[in-house]
Amino acid sequence: MKKVALIVLMFPLLYACHQQQKPNILFIMSDDHAFQAVSAYGHGLNNTPNIDRIANEGAIFNKGFVTNSICAPSRAVVLTGKHSFINGKVDNIQAFDWNQPNFAKDLQAIGYQTALIGKIHLNGLPQGFDYSAVLPGQGHYYNPDFIINGVKERINGYVTTITTNLGLDWLKNKRDKTKPFLMLYQQKAPHRNWQSEEKYLSLFDDKTFDFPENFFDNYEGRPAAAAQEMMISATEEQLAVTNGAGGHGRWGHDFKLLEDPFGRDTRFNKELDRFTPEQKKAWLKAYTPKNDKMRAANLEGKDLAHWKFNRYLKDYLRTIQSVDDGVGEVLDYLDENGLAENTIVVYTSDQGFYLGEHGWFDKRFMYEESFRTPILMRYPKEIKPGTQIDELIQNLDFAPTFLDYAGVEIPEDMQGESFRKVVSKETSEWRDAIYYTYYEYPSVHMVKRHNGVRTDRYKLMHFYYDIDVWEMYDLEKDPAEMKNIYNDPNYTEVQKMMHKRFEEMRDKYGDSDELDQMHIENYLSHRKKRRQG
Ligand code: SGN
Ligand code: CA
Q1: DSSP notation for 77-118
Q2: Has residue 487 been placed in a domain?
Q3: Does residue 452 sit within a domain?
Q4: Residues with CB under 6 A from ligand 1
């Protein structure tokens, strides 16, 4: 009898202990962070020692991909574990339905305490989070507004630092320490227009970066690639077409020639108005001498392209340095509070980015640099330090994976799969193909609608709507995707096989020509309404 009473008495305690056994989840996502700019991937552009720590003490994913290479849709895929055409958030423009299930809601339901901090880029009040402190829309780099539990307030300072501080404050002071936690800690950086923190304004000044090999691409055999508006070094004619619409790299906004020599692009000057006098002073001090030197050099042709490429890349990498600092602070907090062992840490981005490959910045295309995304993951209980993952993993898989770790049954209609056993190396059984869709067209950067399938070696893509073009690549022979081998007689069998895989993928995930057509109609009517309203 006594024994029974004791067990009954101890039950809440045992329950609490059991709850604590559930792993915490710290999901770190930055915006537009190319894997080429995470030093753990070995490209040698920059140093990200804190992000690298996650891989050194855990796993690095060499074939991590998104399903739709653009911000808001990617976030919707992460939350729901469903492709864009199922969760409904196909582009940055149309609304996201927060009423649908998401993995944060599922974790909340079993007693997790949940927080969402930083950029989310989805309209409406986030659902599934006990605490949220988010940027409205894209947010600002300097003195940004935040919406904290639904209430807007301006916070002075630099956005990356503020986001980190909000995250640390939640971990230290707002968290219920008896509960397992889920924290989505999501940075705005390194999103365009790459405004760095004051202390990094001169980082890389002593460095010169070489063009990637295919910077001067002629887009032969790839008409959709030729039609984009995301050139780092566009001609004046190209700039004139897109000026105002924000496409190709712009003198003021992107290259920060504080006054546009052609007198058109004053948007960046306007943004400086947001700065405090001290911030502005630091910026002018750093940029004015560099800009004067550039103007005096009267650069042309390849030299001018090289200057633009360097200005772009350095600004981009500078913003990443602050992201890395923040990761370091949060990892230190876990260490110092005995949380490292029982916390799953993921570092990723909402998609990849072009750092001059094909002459570009931005993303959207299913070509590797933007289709891929960095994924690094640490969980000492199950992942060995230095693990390399070469399976085809997608951002679609995060939700079911986290639910798996938390011991929640994965809802049947989630389309991703748990990669828990892949990353612990308990299984080598995994999918051998992945599916991709992109919809936001016509829009900024003018990347045409397309979809496709990628296997370990080959990629088949279809561009449609105002074009009907297939592309195919042999990634083993042509990793830079410069030669479209669609209809190449040497690949007839491969082409047949890839078409079959493409149809299989569309069937498996529930995509179709009818859905594509519906998205086109929705998009056009939405744009029309916006123009009228
Ligand atoms: C803004 C950027 C674009 C970028 C989109 C989407 N222009 O429009 O370059 O492609 O956001 O980015 S900017 O001049 O306003 O920075 S996303 O990450 O939100 O998808
Ligand atoms: Ca993005």
Answers
A1: HHHHSS-HHHHS--SSSSPP-TTS--HHHHHHHTT-EEEEEE
A2: yes
A3: yes
A4: 31-32, 70-71, 92, 121, 138, 191-193, 246, 253, 362, 444-445
**Cα 192 to averaged position of ligand 1 atoms, centre (Å):** 6
Nearest CA to ligand 1 atom 19: 71
Please report whether residue 433 resides in a domain: no
For residue 473, being part of any structural domain is answered with: yes
Q: Whose CA is nearest to atom 14 of ligand 1?
A: 246
Measured between alpha carbons, how far is 414 from 135 in angstroms, rounded to an integer? 28
From the CA of 352, the nearest ligand is: 2
Q: Phi and psi at residue 186, in whole multiples of 5°?
A: -125, 115
CA–centroid distance, residue 369 to ligand 1 (Å): 17
Point out the ligand nearest to the CA of residue 351.
2
Domain that holds residue 493: 438-532
Q: What is the CATH number of the domain that holds 494?
A: 3.30.1120.10
**Nearest CA, atom 5, ligand 1:** 444
What residues does the ion ligand 2 have nearby, CB within 5 Å? 31-32, 71, 350
CA–CA separation, 346 and 411 (whole Å): 22
Q: How many domains is the chain partitioned into structurally?
A: 1
> Looking at residue 512, what DSSP letter applies?
-
Residue 343 β-bridge partners: 24
Instruction: Write the pLDDT tens digit of every residue in 106-150.
Output: 999 999 999 999 999 999 999 999 999 999 999 999 999 999 999
**Could you report the per-residue pLDDT of 343-385, keeping only the tens digit for each?**
999 999 999 999 999 999 999 999 999 999 999 999 999 999 9
